[in-house]
Amino acid sequence: MTTSTEAPRLAVEPIGVERWRITNQGVVSVRLFETWLPHGRFRGESTRHDRVIGSGESVTLDLRVRTSGAPGETVENAFLILRLDGWRVLARLAVRFDSKARPHPEVVMLTSQRSGFSGVEE
């Protein structure tokens, strides 16, 4: 498992709006406990997981998502938050709506933060 001093190295890839591939690019396993999509226009409730992702391994997650956008619109600063053992990984998203208002999420940036860094413990 990831130690408290080593940040997880993950890749997050949307396969569709409600399907996501998480790949562990680090050298140690990580345990995924929870995911959440908190944006008002690209929202998914907190989902509990208890999945170990080994080094070089991927898991596919099915997450229910509610979206709201007009044709041609882009929703900025949506997030997929992953809670791991001792860490939170934040995948910042841009969600582009095509000419038929179908959403297409794209990962813009990944950051990792230690759990409890803000004074709020798990």
Task: Write the SSE topology.
Blueprint: E1 10-14, E2 19-24, E3 30-39, E4 42-53, E5 58-62, E6 66-67, E7 74-84, E8 87-97, E9 103-114
Antiparallel strand pairs: 1-2, 2-5, 3-4, 3-7, 4-6, 7-8, 8-9
Any descriptors?
elongated, six-stranded antiparallel beta sheet, mainly beta, 122 residues, single chain, 0% helix, three-stranded antiparallel beta sheet
Detailed description of the structure:
By secondary structure, the chain is mainly β. The protein has one domain (10-113). The protein is built from no helices and nine strands. It has strands at residues 10-14, 19-24, 30-39, 42-53, 58-62, 66-67, 74-84, 87-97, 103-114. The strands form two sheets. The chain has a six-stranded antiparallel sheet with strand order 6-4-3-7-8-9, with no helix packed on it. A three-stranded antiparallel sheet has the order 1-2-5, with no helix packed on it. Strand 7 and strand 8 (87-97) form a beta hairpin. The protein is elongated. The mean pLDDT is 92.
Strand content: over 45%
Strand order of the largest sheet: 6-4-3-7-8-9
Number of strands: 9
What's the number of structural domains? Answer: 1
Give helix % range. under 10%
Question: Please, what is the average pLDDT?
Answer: 92
Describe the sheet with the most strands: 6 strands, antiparallel
Q: Structural class per helix/strand content?
A: mainly beta
